[in-house]
Amino acid sequence: MVGLGPKKPPSRKGSMADVPQDLITQINRLEELFTVPAKKLKAISDHFVDELTKGLTVEGGSIPMNPTWCMAFPDGNETGTFLALDMGGTNLRVCEITLLEEKGEFDIIQSKYKMPEELKTGTSEELWGYIADCLQQFIEYHHQEEELDELPLGFTFSYPATQDYIDHGVLQRWTKGFDIEGVEGNDVVPPFEAALAERGVPIRLTALVNDTTGTLIASAYTDTEMKIGCIFGTGCNAAYMENVGSIPKLAHMNLDPELPMAINCEWGAFDNEHQILPRTTYDIIIDKESPRPGQQSFEKMIAGLYLGEIFRLVLVDLHESLECKIFEGQDLGKLKKPYSLDAGFLSAVEEDPFENLSETEDMFRNKLGIVCNKPELELIRRLAELIGTRAARLSACGVAAICKKKGWDKAHVGADGSVFNKYPHFKQRGAQALKEILDWPAHKGKGKNDPVEILPAEDGSGVGAALIAALTLKRVQQGQNAGIRNPDSMLKCSAAQKKAK
Ligand code: BGC
To answer: What class of enzyme is it (predicted)?
Structure first.
């Protein structure tokens, strides 16, 4: 077809020729602000290692390093039918997963329910009531007129929770823009179970799971090299398998130090004390205006929820700046609305395949009512690249830190989330940063067959949560009840599983 540009993003070399000096000065300033050189990446990673270690001590640090009581990798012989519930930011997903006799195989049925926006700032009764309604609908739809034994459930609750038991979790704080009163500081399981009981829904919560732990376990189901599970999505976090002997805050339990224990790092909280991350004024504004200022410092610089907002804040600032006025004389009403641009918008800017950035121009015109000239479009594109690149490079610091802490020269990392799956060049930029931090030879850092390789994960909040529920039931059957609050009621569940087989 005539008139279509190339598919691959063209090199933008030379495209700055028409950009006036004041914009060039601004672009240089932004490059300075948002670029994280190799030396800084290394310093961040080293500090990160110390903070991971500190989080495991009795005194603790700002990274929570939550023991999850998921104490084994699957061996592929897990069987049975499990429910999995994923309370994500936009959707609620319910799955029924049957782990089959054939090693590593499973059947899955699933339904999605919209998570109403008002719920995120509503009351806790509304939240649990809505979730229980969805589960009830799912069961009624898929098991019409069946006599059901209690089904075991793996509940993926992707917020920081302190877990003394796997079937328990005290929400430390809401993240990702959630702000529901009366949940922080409390165990989320009893009100959830009460809402199910009120409706007579035959479900037994077997494991409360973080999405990163689910990702780790689901990915390890099919890949024995898997050592870390990561989410690069609306939020950002990782989990890995530690040995109990390296977790001083569990010493009082006198467990076998060789036992494995999945740790949900909650690394979004890294550097809440602002010692090392190169925060810009824009990052500071994001934090100040957020429902939880002072929290999730690292996450606020890299996660999908914030990327579009950082971009928006820079553009508004440049419009108002005295040295350079972009979008001069135009109505910026739409752009001035907080969180009006998401990471998808930024992705689309980076993905614009046309030399003249005509897709970006259309997006600004159609979505924001702003008409951009060519130099402004060049600045917009460069800014998106800088923000996206910084996110990928900082994310790599966390991955490198876990590897360094554990002394792993080689590892597979299972990653999921909208930023990892959809944001252009995120994977390559992350691989390049890992190479710089870990000093790999020149031909590495391409993402494929690198010593530490970040790979697309298996379905963590579905299959992962089901596997963790299965592993928990297996432990109960073997009488290994450490970190399980309600082993007796779980035994009933596992007997029903056996009967069903
Ligand atoms: C939450 C984590 C979660 C991550 C990715 C963060 O905001 O605190 O629990 O794993 O988002 O979903």
So the answer is: transferase
